Amino acid sequence: MLGIGVVGIYIGTATDECIRGLIVMSYWYKKKWLGKSVVDQKDITELA
Question: Rounded distance, CA 20 to CA 28, Å?
Answer without folding.
Answer: 12
